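Suppose you are handed a protein chain with no further information: no name, no annotation, nothing but its sequence. What can you learn? This example shows the usual starting point.
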Amino acid sequence: MLFSRKHRTVLAAFSAAAVFWTAVAAADGDNNEDRSDPLETLNRFTSGFNSFLRKGFIDPVVDLYQYVTPDPMEEAIGRAAANLSEPITAGSSLLQGDTENAGAATQRFLINSTLGLAGLGDPATEMGIESRREDLGQTLGAHGVAPGPHIVLPILGPSNLRDVTGDLPLMILSPVPLAGAAAKGTVEYSGKQDTYRAIGEGSIDPYVAEREAYEQNRNYEVRNGDIPGPVFADEIKR
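A reasonable first move is to predict its three-dimensional structure. Written in structure tokens, the prediction is:
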């Protein structure tokens, strides 16, 4: 059988959630003035906890990692981590009917996993096969699903109900072990650390700055850049 009972249950839940959020899309826009944030009190608490955790633990660990790791090795590890996202991009693109990007992501994964030694190298880009990351949250957005309420997740940071709904099946179905996923997230955060710091610095309300940065960037990604992007659009990737 192509999918096990557990996989079919997850996919059915994903489809049901997509239908539900499509139904409420008209009532929930992407404008800043209409940002849906009914969980703001809880979100602010979680955001504060995440900020404390980043400053007290995550940032020192990442700073140490960057200090002891030579730049070429750090870049290679970053490429390997990015390579793990290519199957997700391929599947998400296919669900959007974007067979061109699905094919490119599949080629990138096969080429970089073999010729690129598990993604440490990026011969696919050298061959002219460019990367454009997609995920299930973007897929839902492409099909008209509104972001829904903003959500700040412990450790993982800002999200929204649409993106959490898209991430849930991946958490269950992902072939990457939890430890591998944690390592991948750490490596990716290392490359965005300065951007995350810059968002909150000098802001009157760091929580609002982080929320708007996430939601605007996700809107930019869902539309594949077919709108004026925020200045950090190329820096922050989910």
